[in-house]
Amino acid sequence: MAAKLLDRFLRYVQVETQSDDRSPNCPSTPGQLNLQRMLKSELEQLGAADVILTPEGYLMATIPATSKRQGIPTVAFFAHVDTAPDFSGRNVKPIVHRNYQGGPIRFPDDPRLVLDAKSAPDLLHAKGKDLVTASGTTLLGADDKAGVAILVTLADTLLRNPKLKHGKIRLCFTPDEEIGRGVDRLNLQQLNADVAYTLDGGPPGEICWETFSADAAEVTIEGVSTHPGEARSKGMVSAIQLAAKLINSLPREQCAPESTSDREGFIHPTRIEGGVERSVIKMILRDFELDGLAAKRKIVQRLCEGLRAAEPRARIRCQIRKQYRNMAYWLRQNMQPVDHARSAVRSLGLEPIDRAIRGGTDGSRLTEKGLPCPNLFTGMHNIHGPLEWVAVQDMELAVKQCVALAHSWVTKLR
Ligand SMILES: [Zn+2]
């Protein structure tokens, strides 16, 4: 299995699929469709059923049930085909480091870079494994091509071994996860699953069933523009100065991403643009709990009120919109999807590790929409940068986890 899995992974990471939040299209970039078409024909060749690529760029397929038992829930597995826009994903040149012996890994295209246990403590567990990295100038794209290669290999494994018992399995490859649109145009009736898992997590054993709850704020400041030479007499009100004042008033010590960790939330200005007449600040608000998130909305709203009071001639608008909610609010009411995942991880001889994600997943929104969807490990590390790496043996474990999970839903019916 490992050779085919590695071959798939190496081919997929060489297809450029970075998503782009400035594009209104779905998928946001054409490269994602190139990979989807490639996957479509591979799944067809493997003998998967109902292989469909929708006009919006969602690829779905079925692995028919091998168990005749009635009432087995349909399990869907998800992976996203796009890579993060944060760092170049063009001309990825994957390098395989066979039988890694510990010690620093260097990169041919950027000799200043070093990957070692200091930058990646998990390397300590990777001795003897076959690692894959990029060459120094790009990310690798294991996030989430590892998930993609795992799912195609899962299809291969299940279709070749009808003795492995499972119910109906649905595979879904989504575009634009990294720009938060991964499930925007997904038709859940077409997917037709009872429970789902994203293959988009980190080290072996990790199960994520808790994410941030998230809102986005946009503050628009309209000032009064005059010629700067007559600014005092004509009453200039600089939107730039007011925007700077607002940003400076944010509680940086307790409430910025740079100063928080674990279960603490934050307010994070992500973009500021504009001029004297009009400036716009975009912020993201994050917290695990709804009251913590509400408190952060209050902070932003109060700061805007303060700015209005201090400068009545300016017009200040604060718009806050919901992004996604912590999947744990729903999963805690029925932990079966997590319990099955834990039993699958234990069947590999690993101890399940619960990890709350300081971010969101496609599963956050799927779970809220009624399709429970924890996130499973793939083996990816140091994602979104040039030091990204993955071990082939860990991806192989992830395939076995999915086989065990599919089987687990047969044996333990609701
Ligand atoms: Zn991802």
Question: How does the SSE layout of this entry go?
Answer:
Blueprint (H helix, E strand, L loop, with lengths): L1 H12 L16 H17 L2 E5 L5 E5 L11 E6 L14 E3 L7 E2 L7 E2 L15 E3 L8 H19 L8 E6 L13 H4 L3 E7 L4 E6 L1 E10 L8 H4 L4 H11 L2 H4 L10 E9 L3 E10 L2 H21 L4 E10 L3 H4 L4 H12 L5 E5 L4 H7 L6 E3 L11 E3 H20 L3
Parallel strand pairs: 3-8, 3-9, 9-16, 10-15
Antiparallel strand pairs: 1-2, 2-8, 4-7, 5-6, 7-17, 10-16, 11-13, 11-14, 12-13
Helix pairs in contact: 1-3, 2-3, 3-12, 10-12
Bound molecules: zinc ion.
The site of zinc ion (ZN) has 5 residues, from helix 3.
CATH architecture name of the largest domain: 3-Layer(aba) Sandwich
CATH topology of the largest domain: Aminopeptidase
Q: How many DSSP H or I helices?
A: 12
Amino- and carboxy-terminal Cα gap: 32 Å
Helix content: 25-40%
**Hetero groups:** zinc ion
E-strand count:
17
Strand content: 15-25%
Q: Which CATH C-level class of the largest domain is it?
A: Alpha Beta
Q: What Rg do the Cα atoms give?
A: 24 Å
What sequence of helices (H) and strands (E) makes up the elements?
HHEEEEEEEHEHEEEHHHEEHEHHEHEEH
Query: Outline, from the CA principal axes?
Result: globular
CATH superfamily of the largest domain: Zn peptidases
Uncertain regions: pLDDT < 50 for 5+ in a row?
A: none
* Quaternary organisation of the protein chains: single chain
Number of domains: 2
Main β-sheet description: 8 strands, mixed
Q: Estimate the mean pLDDT confidence.
A: 95
What is the SS-derived class?
A: alpha+beta
Spatially, the strands of the biggest sheet line up as 1-2-8-3-9-16-10-15
